[in-house]
Amino acid sequence: MKLLALDTSTRGCSVAVWAAGRVAAELRTVNARTHSAHLMTMIRDTLLRAQTGLEALDGFAVTVGPGSFTGLRIGISTILGLSAATGKPIAGISGLDALAMQAAAPDILICPMIDGRRNEVYAARYRWINEDLVKEMAEQVLPPEIAITGVDTPALFAGNGAQLYQALIRDRLGDGARFALECQNTLRASTVAWISMKRFENGDVDDIYNFEPMYIRRPDAKIPAPFKPL
């Protein structure tokens, strides 16, 4: 199976091609420019590095949120366009699911956090059970001090929200608070691809005509619905 995956949910932008059970190519950048300025170039260059083309792909995967409203709209509209052009299926993946998967810490609560601005974070909770990553708390947007309420066991925090509020988390949870490595705090498109691969194998794909961002908080604007032929 050969997939193109991307993440544009934060300031980081990541594109990956997954082929034959491994990462064939991946490009990442973190800067203040809008993702629309470099995303298509990154897609082209990633495909070239993977020595493949759009016609050879089996599907597309993209983070659907939570995260930057503008970033999500750019990533999702791009994937919808590629899907419409090629007729290939798509799978939307939670960015918090991907962050938790990257942390990959057995026997400990995993608490990914994405900066939600307005002194809030997008947060969820996970735990590895019998080699499966199980979500114990669904995605929510909360003030950071509320997001950690009820955490009474050692927990690993990951993501730019955890970095931003690290001092507060340490102050509230003490030695029970642990933090992911720097390389685990930025979402990788290869992780998005890995998660989506199992969905594609099971035929669990999304309907492009009802494919929407997972904003959680009410957005200021919405991406237009894709064109439906008569």
Please mark out the parts with pLDDT under 50 across 5 or more consecutive residues, or reply none.
219-230
The largest β sheet comes out as: 5 strands, mixed
Overall pLDDT metric? 92
CATH first level of the largest domain: Alpha Beta
- SSE string, helices as H and strands as E: EEEHEHEHEEEHEHHEH
Label the overall shape: globular
| Strand residues, percent | 25-35%
Q: Assign a percent range to the helix content.
A: 25-40%
The CATH topology of the largest domain is what?
Nucleotidyltransferase, domain 5
Coarse structural class: alpha/beta
Structural account:
Mean pLDDT is 92; it is low at 219-230. With 230 residues, the protein is of the alpha/beta class. It is 30% helix and 30% strand. The chain has a five-stranded mixed sheet, sandwiched between helices. It has two domains: 2-95 and 187-210, Nucleotidyltransferase, domain 5 (2-Layer Sandwich); 97-184, ATPase, nucleotide binding domain (Nucleotidyltransferase, domain 5, 2-Layer Sandwich).
Summary keywords:
Nucleotidyltransferase, domain 5; alpha/beta; single chain; 30% strand; 5-stranded mixed sheet; 230 residues; 30% helix
What is the secondary structure topology, with strand pairs?
Layout: E1 2-7, E2 12-19, E3 22-30, H1 39-49, E4 59-65, H2 69-86, E5 90-94, H3 95-103, E6 109-115, E7 121-129, E8 132-142, H4 144-147, E9 155-158, H5 160-164, H6 166-173, E10 177-179, H7 189-201
Parallel strand pairs: 1-4, 4-5, 6-9, 9-10
Antiparallel strand pairs: 1-2, 2-3, 6-7, 7-8
